[in-house]
Amino acid sequence: MQPKSTTLKILDIVSVLLLAVSTYLALIYAPEEATMGQVQRVFYFHIATAWVGMLGFLAAAVAGIVYLRAQNPKWDIVEVAAVEISLVFFFITIVLGSIWARPVWNTWWTWDPRLTTAAITELIYIAYFMLREGIEDPDRRARFGAVYTLVGSLSVPITFFSIRLFRTIHPVVIGSADPSATGTFDMTGGMQVAFFFALFAFTVIFIDLFWNRIRMGNLAAKVEQLKLKVMH
Amino acid sequence: MFLQDAPPDTSSYMIAGYVVFFLVTAIYLFSFFVRSHNLKQDLNALENMKEESAPPPAREETKAAAPKPKAKSTASKAKSKPRQAKKKVTKK
Amino acid sequence: MIEVRKLIKRFGMKTVLRGVDFDVQPGEFVALLGPNGAGKTTFLRILASLSHPSLGEIRVAGYRLPNEAAAVRARLGVVSHLPLLYGDLTAEENLLFFGRMYGVTKLENRISEVLEMVGLSARRHDLVRTFSRGMQQRLAIGRAVLHDPDVILFDEPYTGLDQDASSMLDDVLKSVAAQGRTVVMTSHDLVRAEDLATRFDILSRGIIAASATRKELSKSNLLSFYKEALAG
Amino acid sequence: MVTKSARLSKSVTERSTSPNLFKATLAIAWKDLTAEYRSRELFSAMLVFSLLVILIFNFALELDIKTRQSVTSGVIWVTFAFAGTLGLNRSMAVEKDRGCLDGLLLAPVDRAAIYFGKVISNLAFMLIVEIVVLPVYSFLYSINLFNPGLLAVILLGSIGYIAVGTLLASMAVQTRTRDVLLPILLFPVAIPVLIAAVKASGGFLNGDEFSMILPWINLLIVYDIIFVAIAFMVFDYVVEE
Description:
heterotetramer, C: alpha/beta, Rossmann fold, 2 domains, 6-stranded mixed sheet, 27% strand, D: mainly alpha, 8 helices, globular, disordered N terminus
């Protein structure tokens, strides 16, 4: 396994730096929000992790489609990497969402479209890993995984609309703001800097993690191959 | 909640949020390093075994009935498959 | 009738077939012998278009696999140690179903012909669940010849059959061979293979180790030829 | 024992033409329904299971008449969802256990025929169970369930549920954990169907005007179309080796 390429090493360092800077921006630089107080600062990482999570699940679906067309195991490794990272980030998004909800809506959990869809998406991709665990043959495991990411990623938007149709109280900060939803706030200059920087930083962090995880996937495949060769 | 002029003190929730973020990230990174460390170890163990079992000069797999390596794989934790770090979803 | 060039089949990292070359002329009855795990069943499943080859060229009944699979399947009959029949349907209903799936014309009297051939006309309206293993195997052969295929593949047809069921199966196999069809049969039972087949191929460690027609074998018997091929 | 069979020259039996998709689909559906009619093992399991679930709900949600009115659509859809999962598991397991799936794959027919054949037979099982459960439910709780809107929603919802369920069941049946895995795979993906079906059924039961229920029906239709199309396209990868 060739050693870590220099670009990857640089990316690792850059990611750590970006994380530090965006944490600074979110916690100190951005002004305190008048109505909600300090908890609003959770918002930056809440949205950034959500964005990365969705990015990852999208990447997984694309990798799934490409695998189904080409049956090249490389894409299966990419898919698993994307799903694994997104699972972690989406989990954080859900927890941050509920921590933020506690003081603002004084309940830990509200059945509103975004939070519920996030939870369902998390369950879908946990089911994805359980499906993979249940299959021995690597080719079939890859095929079934690809099919399920496809089905799963298609059901997420529909789930979101069906719940939004069900009812909505989640504050919409950007886009069609629903004034009646409590907890909305307008982003002043400082906040916007922190917000967009967090988005950018997390995207870079995602790519770094993604690349590393793919390398690890290749390493695992190589070990498996060697194991077969030596054991026979 | 809106009575006092100063914004309500919800910093404890903010701290909780960021603690959760860094904790979960740390756990994931830790499991990531453990897995890749184990894999690297397995790789070296297997590569040594391959050297032992095929010492003849010809590097590539020779047809000669090379003695099957009887020794069990000595890799310390030769897991059949790297355990995926299972994400326990602890919803409050 | 069957041409196989450099067929390789990998399950994940494990290579089960390491470059098989195999040719069968129309009307030949080839017995494919070999120890367990040599890849006999895998090879037959690839010929039967049930499994995709990893690498290699395959033509059955004049059509390429896996691209022209549908055309191959219309000219191919398969009998495996599993009867592939529905216990809750009667013999006639099973043949009706498979007849429709294969688009057999004039299905009614074709079924009578086939039941006559395998000696099950009396049991036409009985549930297959009530059939003995031997009778199910003969009905399975009936199903395999229903659409009048050019090639028939038998995968260990004698497994689990007692003495008289096996001898009855011999007669049916002889009558099938007599119809000028091309047959490939895998088997453990050298004795049975010896008096049925016109050619003997030995598959071991993923390749065809040896092949000999009945004439070439006249001097030494099949057993010594088999042992020799495995030792090689 | 074996009479000397007449020499079947090739000309006697015309060359068999491979059947079109529609005929093969009907053949598979006919096969499943006939086999099930004979053994009735699947249907009775689903039926008894549904009645038990209703009984449990009766004690679990021991309510007065008014609230029972609103909870009905929820109860019937949870019952149908569980019974459906039971049915999907059984019908695919029957195919896999006796190796019959290979028998289907050997036929010179498009894999979609297998998928649609299975969807039709699974849907038929689910509808039959629904046809029996609804009168029993309305008998037990004296609620009139025979309004056409409700039946249409039940049909639409079942189609969507079975369309995705059949695809996922054919995967689940090939894994180690088998029928434990199907609900885990199916429920998170089938949530839009369940929500839309429950809301639309509730709407019809309470007699809301149609414009209120229409969005839910549209959602059901969109879901059905998308997932039948997707399943149709990827089914090859699920059954082929």
